[in-house]
Design goal:
Oligomer: heterodimer
Radius of gyration of chain A: 23 Å
Shape of chain A: globular
Structural class of chain A: alpha/beta
Strand content of chain A: 15-25%
Largest interface: A-B, 31 and 25 residues
Number of helices of chain B: 13
Distance between the termini of chain A: 47 Å
Largest sheet of chain A: 8 strands, mixed
Strand content of chain B: under 5%
Number of strands of chain B: 0
Number of strands of chain A: 14
Number of helices of chain A: 18
């Protein structure tokens, strides 16, 4: 599978984008909707990461949270989104010196072991500091530092330096010897604007409505060119034409002066892509870019995206509910359900051996999978609204494999088997080597640790 | 079809509309119960004089036989097209209708200009401001005042406001113990009566003319102001939540560019018909407001012409209004074609 994917991805490098425990909630008078509930994933350079799920599973909110496009009554309430792009970090560090953390400076000023000591004294659990099972007594800060288990960088990334008061809480640019990162969840609206477009660009679902009807296509592309490439006048005009040609719009010289309503749906989506490319992004978030298009046009757009990705070494986060599209374009797939990540695997593995019952259901419901059936297979029921802290499996009511514990224990993301490095699922059936009783215990204890950490973090 | 061809077609279509409107006016005037001669001469009329007048009006031939309605109609329409409106019979008997209209028009234009301006300059900015800050205190304040302005009928507001302004001295003395006079404020003006528009080049005279017309203009513009505020707010809210604004944000555009470039122009589209429909309110309202504030303008003239049966004058005034409304409609379409490039294309 992954027929369009040709790029080689270097996974030894730190990922371009790290989403960690991202939580976005919408606060209405009636309830708090946890639209994105603690999800984590990475995007490497040149990689396409798919996010798939039914409508209402929180895919688009995830994308908008990364872009900082969540409006009231919604808010990103927790977690971090770390964008590691050297140019972006330098650019923002220059503009926001007061909100930049220089890790090199921190290293000379503070001793890491000393920091760990103080954190332990403040009651931070050792497991949270090190990311592995560890008891308070058996922990030796100096040892941890020597083994590189805890570094100044990891302390900053996990927000411990804020807790110690050695960094500002509103700092969002972190500069390090290897380039550092920008934590977008903490960025101000003003700073976000500098990050959007150049850095992270986004393509939306409906090309019919995502272009402003009263300005020409060229005008809207040039707007991005002026902003992110600094070109003006004729140079910007030429660049706009070049971009339209790059997305295979014929007769670009004439098209650049036309209005969106003079474009067909597929052409409009190409124009939107050209507009995103005008920003010269490192990461492109595509929110169901082919959903509103017919199948032939859809294939063309996917091909175009793959070409562009190969040309520019672009990372793509591709959101869709269409399993077929995911199979074609992505390298890595995240399956979302009711605001949570339920399964994560490389695309081949996910399609060959889906582990979570929800993923299995999604794959079963692809038309044409069971030609002998009279009717398409579906997953009975609807996605529930995630409006409370999960103490159970949100998929259990629709799950064919559900058992009693599913109602009482919240499944955590675990490796599906002991030797699986890249395939995780949030289901009480896994890891598959263990007996059901053992897996339930493992999930319960993981959940307890997480809750405990979240508890002391809130203070 | 290009937008300019669409616009020219629209221009040509205005001709039959005016034609049809005036035909209706003819029917209402000539077939109505009002006898123009009786209106002019009163109850005890000199039969000879009455006969001469009927001949002059083209109702009967000199030999006493009635002129066919069809011929009357053709004469009426030809007179309108050639702008020979004739003379008035009742009000200022003998004066040329055209001269009378031209003499009365400036006050009405002055009044209309300020009422539109007040509505535009207060209603739309306030609506846009509220739309950009939905559910905030300024929004609640603006929305509430918009409803209040809209809810006050202009005949009521006109009377209350004129009473209030006439009595400012007494009222302010009763309330705060100081005599504040609207008439003496800035420049000496009356509340009731017609302002002097003779020399607007002189700053003091201009100020006096503006101050004089302002209360009437506020009354006339109040409902439109409330309307524009509410529609403006909704339009901005709708636009700001649209996909292309999100795309513009995702591009990294600043809030100022998004609001001024992407939101405003789109939010203006639904406002265009609201603004142009003000013209209709203006004509209806000016009749009333001019009467209450005793402004000698076209509105008051129309009311008197119809009440007193001065049919030549009434017909000419209605013709002027019909032309005016057509011009406003065409201006509206012109604005549409300028603001929205989609206009004029057949949508399939």
């Amino acid at each position: 599978m992954s027929m369009y994917s040709t790029a080689l991805i270097d996974r030894s490098e730190p990922p371009l984008l790290t989403v960690e425990n991202l939580q976005t909630s919408f606060f209405t008078d009636k309830e708090t909707i946890r639209a994105v509930d603690a999800i984590s994933f990475d995007v490497h350079r040149g990689e396409t990461v798919g996010i798939v799920g039914e409508s209402g599973s929180g895919k688009s909110v995830t994308a908008r949270s990364i872009m900082g496009l969540i409006d009231s009554p919604g808010r990103v309430v927790g977690g971090s989104v770390r964008f590691r792009d050297g140019d972006t970090v330098e650019r923002l560090a220059e503009q926001y010196p007061d909100r930049t953390i220089d890790i090199e400076a921190l290293r000379t000023e503070h001793d890491v072991a000393d920091c760990i000591e103080r954190l332990l004294d403040q009651g931070v659990s050792p497991a949270r500091l090190t990311g592995r099972e560890e008891s308070r007594a058996g922990i030796d800060p100096v040892e941890l530092v020597r083994e590189d288990v805890v570094t100044m960088r990891s302390l900053v990334e996990d927000g411990f330096t804020d807790q110690l008061g050695i960094t500002e809480e509103d700092a969002f640019v972190v500069r390090d010897t290897d380039g550092g990162y920008v934590d977008t969840t903490r960025a101000s609206e003003d700073a976000f604007r500098k990050l959007r477009g150049q850095g992270i660009a986004m393509i939306f679902q409906d090309p019919l409505t995502s272009l402003n009807p009263v300005y020409t296509v060229g005008n809207q592309i040039k707007e991005a060119i002026r902003l992110h490439q600094g070109l003006r006048g004729n140079a910007a005009h030429e660049e706009a034409i070049r971009l339209l040609e790059a997305v295979s719009i014929p007769d670009a010289h004439r098209r650049v002066g036309e209005y969106p309503h003079e474009f067909s749906g597929g052409m409009r989506q190409r124009a939107v892509i050209a507009m995103a490319l005008a920003c010269k992004p490192e990461l492109l978030i595509c929110d169901e870019p082919t959903t509103a298009l017919d199948v032939t046009i859809q294939a063309q757009i996917l091909e175009l995206l793959t070409e562009i990705q190969a040309e520019r070494d672009l990372s793509i986060v591709f959101i869709t509910h269409d399993m077929g599209v995911i199979a074609e374009i992505s390298d890595q797939v995240n399956v979302m359900y009711a605001g949570e990540l339920v399964e994560k695997a490389p695309v081949d593995e996910l399609f060959d051996a889906p582990k979570h019952p929800y993923t299995q259901g999604l794959l079963e419901s692809i038309p044409g999978r069971h030609p002998e059936d009279d009717r398409l297979r579906t997953i009975e029921g609807d996605v529930p609204t995630p409006n409370e802290q999960p103490t159970f499996c949100r998929f259990a009511p629709r799950c064919p494999e559900a058992f009693d514990a599913c109602e009482a224990v919240h499944p955590e993301n675990v490796d599906v088997s002991e030797d699986a490095q890249t395939h995780t699922a949030a289901c009480l059936l896994y890891p598959e080597e263990l007996s059901t009783a053992d897996t339930v215990d493992r999930h319960r204890s993981l959940g307890e640790t997480r809750d405990a950490d979240r508890g002391d973090h809130d203070e | 079809m290009s937008r300019w061809r669409y616009f020219i077609r629209r221009l040509v279509l205005a001709v039959p509309v005016v034609f049809f409107a005036m035909s209706l006016v003819f029917i209402v005037i000539r077939m109505g119960p009002r006898d123009p001669v009786a209106a002019a001469l009163g109850q005890n009329q000199n039969p000879e004089l009455a006969h001469r007048m009927r001949v002059q009006l083209g109702i009967i031939n000199p030999d006493g036989s009635p002129v066919p309605l069809w011929d009357q109609y053709i004469e009426f329409m030809v007179d309108l097209v050639t702008l020979s409106f004739g003379q008035t019979w009742v009000i200022n008997r003998g004066a040329g209708v055209l001269d009378l209209i031209l003499a009365r028009a400036p006050v009405t234009i002055w009044l209309g200009f300020w009422s539109v301006l007040i509505a535009l300059l207060i209603g739309i900015p306030l609506g846009f401001y509220a739309g950009l800050r939905p559910n905030s205190m300024p929004d609640y304040f603006a929305s509430f005042s918009g409803i209040v302005w809209r809810a006050m009928p202009n005949f009521w507001l006109a009377i209350i406001l004129s009473r209030f302004l006439v009595n400012t001295e007494g009222l302010s003395y009763d309330l705060i113990g100081v005599q504040l006079s609207w008439s003496a404020f800035l420049v000496e003006t009356n509340v009731i009566g017609t302002p002097d528009l003779g020399n607007l080049g002189d700053p003091m005279a201009l100020l006096a003319a503006i101050k004089w017309i302002l209360p009437a203009a506020i009354v006339l513009g109040s409902a439109s102001m409330g309307n524009e505020m509410r529609i403006g707010r909704t339009a901005v809210l709708e636009t700001i939540n649209s996909d292309y604004v999100e795309t513009a944000r995702a591009k990294g555009l600043g809030r100022r560019v998004i609001v001024w470039k992407h939101v405003f122009r789109n939010a203006l589209i639904p406002l265009v018909p609201v603004i142009s429909s003000e013209a209709f309110v203006l004509i209806g309202g000016s009749v009333l407001v001019e009467y209450v504030f005793a402004l000698n303008g076209l509105g008051k003239l129309t009311f008197e012409a119809i009440r007193q049966g001065d049919l030549a004058l009434a017909g000419a005034l209605l013709f002027v209004f019909a032309i005016f409304l057509q011009v406003v409609n065409i201006l509206q379409d012109l604005l549409y074609t300028v603001i929205d490039p989609r206009i004029g294309y057949e949508q399939s």
